[in-house]
Write a structure and sequence with these properties.
CATH architecture: 3-Layer(aba) Sandwich
Strand content: 15-25%
CATH superfamily: DD-peptidase/beta-lactamase superfamily
Order of helices and strands: HHHEEEHEHEHHHEHHEEEEEH
Radius of gyration: 19 Å
Strand order of the largest sheet: 2-1-11-10-9
Helix content: 25-40%
Protein name: Peptidase S11 D-alanyl-D-alanine carboxypeptidase A N-terminal domain-containing protein
Distance between the termini: 20 Å
CATH topology: Beta-lactamase
Family: Belongs to the peptidase S11 family.
Largest sheet: 5 strands, antiparallel
InterPro entries: Beta-lactam/transpept-like, Peptidase_S11, Peptidase_S11_N
GO molecular function, one term: serine-type D-Ala-D-Ala carboxypeptidase activity
Number of strands: 11
Shape: globular
CATH class: Alpha Beta
Pfam families: Peptidase_S11
Number of helices: 11
């Protein structure tokens, strides 16, 4: 009976998403295939290639991340922590920063307005050299390289439209407004600073809280976070290049259907990952999982999800 309700929930959620995302460009091969196992045990077996482990077995291989959290969120936004470790530790977050960059851009810009990539983007450490100075895009379209391939030039372009310092101020104001008390930004990209300043930092708990805000209030951002590929065009309608996600779990089987994810990696931060997945539990909207300071963010996330689904 509980799987009937799960099926009904996913059907309703899918209809809701289709309505909200209808104004966002979506390629035909946009989403990771949904898993529809008859049981949670089958989901684990699909994800690991082995017989379903119990909770003890799932956690037998240590997670390398310095900090992690996994929690369920119900349709009212209520949170239940499944498992966590050092989840309140302040750590560098690298490109997970770009989630807030996207929120501030959505809140403050007309996404249908045009934006030209500034020379500043090419001169910045970590430039991808894919978005070239002088090229013009719609602001809304720059959210795609920002979140899919984690393009630093897109972050610089979005911030510099109003002035980078002011944009970062708004990022920090938004963090305080959302109750992210242990989060602070010094740039819109997440790159490690060269001047000895602290990098952008947050906690697994704050990032999970931000993920819930995105899932509930920013469906366009969540949609972009779910895409494996996207064909980016200039403002003139000319094909620019095909974006490919940095989140390889979108291409691999995991215990739950992925609703969105964001990677982050720098020398100071090591490897980070946020994943928002559909929950297999009744009366639960999603599972939000975060790993920070990992040696293997994708491997750690698989272990975390497998352990979480077993509890």
């Amino acid at each position: 009976m509980k799987y009937y309700f799960l099926f009904l929930f996913l059907l309703v959620f899918g209809t809701f998403s289709a309505i909200h995302f209808s104004s966002i460009r979506q390629p035909a091969d946009a989403y990771a295939p949904a898993l529809s196992p008859a049981t949670v045990d089958e989901a684990i077996e699909q994800a690991t290639g082995t017989a379903s482990p119990n909770a003890a077995t799932a956690s037998s291989t240590p997670i390398s991340a310095k900090s992690f959290i996994s929690e369920t969120v119900d349709v009212m936004g209520n949170v239940r922590v499944i498992t966590k470790k050092n989840s309140s530790a302040r750590l560098p977050i690298a490109s997970i920063t770009k989630l807030m960059t996207a929120i501030v851009a959505v809140n403050n810009y007309n996404l249908a307005e045009k934006i030209t990539v500034p020379q500043e983007a090419a001169n910045t450490k970590g430039s991808s050299r894919r978005l070239l100075p002088g090229q013009t895009f719609f602001i809304g379209d720059l959210l795609y390289p920002l979140l899919i391939e984690s393009d630093n030039d897109a972050g610089i372009a979005l911030a510099s439209k109003m002035e980078t310092g002011r944009f970062v101020e708004l990022m920090n104001q938004e963090a305080l407004k959302l109750g992210l008390a242990s989060t602070h930004y010094v740039n819109p990209t997440g790159l490690d600073p060269d001047d000895g300043l602290e990098p952008n930092y947050s906690t697994a708990e704050d990032i999970a809280k931000l993920a819930v805000v995105i899932a509930r209030n920013y469906p366009n951002i969540l949609n972009i976070m779910s895409l494996k590929k996207f064909n980016l065009e200039t403002a003139a309608g000319t094909f620019h290049h095909t974006l490919e996600t940095t989140d390889k779990l979108l291409r691999e089987p995991v215990p739950f259907r992925i609703l969105g994810g964001k990677t982050g990696e720098t020398p100071m931060a090591k490897k980070n990952l946020l994943l928002i997945t559909a929950s297999p539990r009744e009366n639960s909207f999603a599972v939000v999982s975060v790993v920070l300071g990992s040696d293997d963010n994708f491997g750690d996330m698989k272990k975390l999800l497998t352990s979480s689904v077993s509890k």
